[in-house]
Amino acid sequence: MASASKDNDDLVAWLVDAGFLKENAKALCDNNRDAGSILVWNPGGKIPAPEGSLPDGLLYDEVFSFAKPQEFQRTLKNLFQRLQLERELAEKNRLLKEKEAENSELLQVGIQLTAEHDNDKLLAYILRQLRQITRADAGTLYLVERDEASGAQQLRFKIAQNDSNPRDYTEFVMPLSKKTISGYVASTGSVLNIEDAYKIPSNREYGFNVNMDKATGYRSKSMLTVPMQDHKGEILGVVQLINRKTDFALKITTANVESIVIPFSRELEQLVLSLASQAAVSLENNKLYQEIETLFEGFVKASVTAIESRDPTTSGHSNRVAVYTVNLARAVTRADFGAYKNVSFTPEHMKEIRYASLLHDFGKVGVREHVLVKAEKLYPDQIKLVKMRLGYIRQAMLYGLLKERFHSLMEGGKEAYLAIKEEIDRKEAEYVAEVDRYLATIETANIPTILDAAPAKALDEIHGKTFIEGETALPYLTDDEYIKLRIHRGSLDDEERLQIESHVSHTYKFLQTIPWTKEMRNIPVIAYGHHEKLDGTGYPRGIHGEEISTQTKMMTVSDIFDALTASDRPYKRAVPAQKALDILTDEVKENKLDADLVKIFIEAKVWESKDDSVALGSTAHAGS
Ligand SMILES: [Fe+2]
Ligand SMILES: [Fe+2]
Question: 560 CA to middle of ligand 2, Å?
Answer without folding.
Answer: 8
